[in-house]
Amino acid sequence: MKILILNAGSSSLKYSLFDMAAGHTVLLSGLIERIGEADAGHRYRIGASDPLQQPLSCDHHRDALQALFALLTETVLPDLSELAAVGHRVVHGGEFFREPALIERQVIAHIEAAIPLAPLHNPANLLGIEETLRLLPTVPQIAVFDTAFHQTLPDYAFRYPLPGRLYTEHGVRRYGFHGTSHAYVAKQAAKHLGKPLAETNLITLHLGNGASVAAIAGGVSIDTSMGMTPLEGLMMGSRCGDIDPAIAFYLARTLGMELDAIDKLYNKASGCLGVCGENDMRAIHAKAEQGDDSARLALAMYAYRIKKYIGAYYAVLGRLDALVFTGGIGENDAWLRQTCCVGLTALGIAVDPAQNAAPAKPAATISPPGAEVAVTVIATNEELEIATQTAECLTRGASTAGDAAKSPCSAAPITE
After folding, report:
1. Is 146 one of the annotated active-site residues of the chain?
2. Which of 159, 213, 249, 327 lies 20 to 30 Å (CA to CA) from residue 185?
3. Which helix (H) or strand (E) holds 309?
4. Residues 383-400: what's their mean pLDDT?
């Protein structure tokens, strides 16, 4: 079974082609970026070969997809009819989707309805879906939602203490993000621990330029740090995370800032970037090592806020089997992992310095032998998780064909 995974951004298209019948082998992967600009480019890798790069004339996502399909047929997939499905990453599914869905008109309508909740992401995701449907009208298309994994949150965790009509009429609630990553590493952590996922309690830390934490009880998400948008929660590369909501009022009244300017400040000029002028953790460490006080402060703030969430989610779970670090920073920053866990021995959380210095991929335990809580480093693979969910969706759809109430994958795909 060959499954193509697409992640369409506003000016980019990331993709991976998996052969699910051959040990989830990646046949082709790449990124087409700067779509619509004169310097558009295409970086890709055939199997495990060295990466290749080529310039590309690409005015529209349709051009990007046509270039991708041409490359597929020239290299690893001579006939596109061999595709079992295309899996699309969709950032926001609102409350409509708890599982992946075979894309048909109603699914597209729901994704459009969620645009106000993800105005930067859902339109681009939809663009990729619509163009792929035009170019591959007979291939099943599956939407996999970042928010779906967190639809298991109880109401007392996802509701905000605001008037109820804001939730019932306008969807103001916690949705959570990075769901495919949290779902993937949760399954891998349970496997690494040798426990059934349904009996495993985890705190998963997805730490990259965007960052989030999830509390997972018996394999199910029961709380997460990102909220109605990806702005809430941890301090991030350029996002502020949790702050006093009244700061926005102060900025508007005292500095005369408009809403759009405050939005840009919170999302693109805050976090590590706002504190020390850098949003790349490697650059922040380099500045700190050179004695830069603002970089040292950024690192201290970043680690401190993670530690606060670890403590809070331990309290929520009541019992913890493993603390999981993942994402580009979580997988590679030994200093941060160590610092986040300092002082948590009363909770059974500790890090062995030697193991932490060189964790093995794809999974490693970095806590001392016999520790009450396993501290682990697990490499995330969101594309593989999307491919796996896409394959599972196809299987469910085939087994419940004609009964849309039983499966979100049983409706007929769009063919026009």
Report:
1. yes
2. 159
3. helix 293-317
4. 84
Q: Tens of pLDDT along 70-95?
A: 999 999 999 999 999 999 999 999 99
Q: What is the largest CA-CA distance in the chain?
A: 65
HSE toward the beta carbon, residue 197, CA cutoff 13 A: 13
Look at residue 410 in the predicted model and tell me its pLDDT. Answer: 43
Instruction: Assign 406 a pLDDT band (cuts: 50, 70, 90).
Output: very low
Q: What is the pLDDT of residue 409?
A: 61
Domains of the chain: 2-145+383-399 (3.30.420.40), 195-378 (3.30.420.40)
pLDDT by residue (tens digit) across 38-61?
889 999 999 989 999 988 888 899
- What pLDDT was estimated at residue 359? 76
Annotated binding-site ranges for ATP: 14, 206-210, 280-282, 328-332
Mean pLDDT value across the chain: 92
Q: Is the pLDDT of residue 13 over 80?
A: yes
Question: Is the distance from CB of 153 to CB of 216 less than 8 angstroms?
Answer: no
Classify 177 as helix, strand or coil: coil
| pLDDT for residue 358 is more than 90 | no
Q: Are 359 and 153 in contact (CB under 8 A)?
A: no
Neighbours of 364 (CB within 10 A): 18
> Cα(377)–Cα(372) distance, rounded to whole angstroms?
16
Vertex 173: Cα angle to 167 and 174 (nearest 5) = 170
Kindly provide the b/e burial profile for residues 175-194, where b requires at least 16 CB atoms within 10 angstroms of the residue's own CB.
bbbbbbbbbbbbbbbbebbe
Return d(Cα 33, Cα 333) in angstroms, integer: 27
Q: Is 137 helix (H, G, I), strand (E, B) or coil?
A: coil
DSSP labels, 11-45: SEEEEEEEETTTTSEEEEEEEEESTTSTT-EEEEE
In order of 78, 274, 391, the CA distances from 294 in angstroms are: 54, 10, 47
Pair of tokens at residue 314: 């331990």
State the binding site for substrate.
89
pLDDT at 399: 42
Residue 401, CA distances (Å) to 101, 108, 141, 393 in order = 13, 20, 16, 12
